[in-house]
Amino acid sequence: MREPSAARLRRIPPYLFQELDDLKARTGGDLIDLGEGSPDQPAPKAISAALTRALKDTENHRYPSYPGKLSARAAVAAWYRRRFRVELDPETEVTMLLGSKEGVAHLIWGTCGPGDTVAVSDPGYPVYQNQSRLCGAAPIPVPLEEKTDFLPDLDWLSRIAPRIKLLCLNFPGNPTAAVAPIEFYRAVVALAERHGFFVINDNVYSELYFGKVKPPSILEVPGAKERCVEFHSLSKTFNMAGWRIGMAVGNAQLIKALLKIKQNTDSGPFGAIQDAAIFALQNGAKFAAANRAMYKRRRNAFCGELVRHGWGVALPDATFYVWTRVPAGYDTAPAGESVSLNFSRKMLSNCRVMCAPGTGFGQYGEGFVRFALVAPEQRLKEAAKRIGRWLT
After folding, report:
1. Residues 260-283: tens digit of each pLDDT
2. How do residues 128-153 score in pLDDT, each as one tens digit?
3. Is the pLDDT of residue 27 over 80?
């Protein structure tokens, strides 16, 4: 009998978050799930009200255009102008997406194939590496290590630069929570210009920062639009993950390649959600600020409680993730098994607290775990207390 699945599926491992769902399903009791980065709060009422109003527009119930409404793309361009001082042409340099994830996948398929090499952050969001494999390209892990503040080493990157067609970045980072300064982006753009490769920057966490310095956009670098596309989303900024609304901005030819795949795969986002996104982009500064304040309180409560119990986790500067080494004394595993996965399973069994094992984000994630701060403050304190009692 013929194998029903395509041979290309053997190029990718099981998807991390599906594995976490399987672990949860086998776990009883009062589980505190800090594994997947899915916001637990609803979208602001005013944004939901904008969606309700938009539902009354009959035109929104027809097929949406592939790049999205021009009014939505103009709102994205205006937001980029206000937030990053970046000028974008809504007609050619902006497209709306069903969340940034599909945009990343479609851009990789639209630009790369057999014989091409894609450099992907490691540890990093699994989609970059997996989509590179699925389209037949060869992914190269770009190490993100503590000694370089979880940024790619520019000397190392310059050595592989002649070999790559596409570099995939994600800052502020998932899972590491690292923030890239504009100086780093300048160096990356200079490398791309010198060696002729293209750059994706996934900037979906840019509005979840906890200091006075706002994370920049790679497109702030002069000339970046010649080689770069940036992805963004309303999922994290406005708790709209389930709405599936995002955008890609930047180089017009890369956007065009993305859209050619998209036109043969799916459609643009539901028109009413695009109208609600316009409202959010035009009126959402206070909502984003409230979200930042909430996650900062959660970060301080969770990390503070773990530190009180002897696990010296560092406070992240951005995102809603806590990325930390497995604590001393728990950093071993049976032969052939991942330290990160072994620790995560034991914590789930002993504490009924779920985190994401670092090895699920790549080989350089081994020895680390990621907590997503997607539970109310008291639940986060309870999770940290459970972990603390177990560790001590």
Report:
1. 999 999 999 999 999 999 999 999
2. 999 999 999 999 999 999 999 999 99
3. no
- Cα–Cα distance, 266 to 6 (Å, whole number): 20
Helices 285-308, 271-283: axis angle to 10 degrees equals 80
Question: Which has the minimum average pLDDT: 20-24, 75-79, 208-212, 328-332?
Answer: 20-24
pTM over 0.70: yes
pLDDT tens, 220-240? 999 999 999 999 999 999 999
Where are the chain's structural domains? 7-42+286-391, 45-284
> What CATH class is the domain 7-42+286-391?
alpha beta
- Find tokens 């944004």 and name the residue: 47
Strand-pairing partners, residue 160, are none
Least confident of 74-78, 261-265, 337-341: 337-341
Residue 383: count of CB within 10 angstroms of its CB: 26
Q: What is the signed CA dihedral for 275, 276, 278, 280, rounded to 10 degrees?
A: 180
Q: How confident is the model at residue 243 (pLDDT cuts 50, 70, 90)?
A: very high
- Sign (positive/negative) of CA torsion 345, 346, 347, 353? positive
Three-state SS annotation for the chain: CCCCCCHHHHHCCCCHHHHHHHHHHCCCCCCEECCCCCCCCCCCHHHHHHHHHHCCCHHHHCCCCCCCCHHHHHHHHHHHHHHHCCCCCCCCCEEEECCHHHHHHHHHHHHCCCCCEEEEEECCCHHHHHHHHHCCCEEEEEEECHHHCCCECHHHHHHHHHHCCEEEEECCCCCCCCCCCHHHHHHHHHHHHHHCCEEEEECCCCCCECCCCCCCCHHHCCCHHHCEEEEEECCCCCCCHHHCCEEEEECHHHHHHHHHHHHCCCCCCCHHHHHHHHHHHHHCHHHHHHHHHHHHHHHHHHHHHHHHCCCCCCCCCECCEEEEECCCCCCCCCCCCCHHHHHHHHHHHHHCEECEEHHHHCHHHCCEEEEECCCCHHHHHHHHHHHHHHHC
Domain 45-284 has CATH 3.40.50.720: no
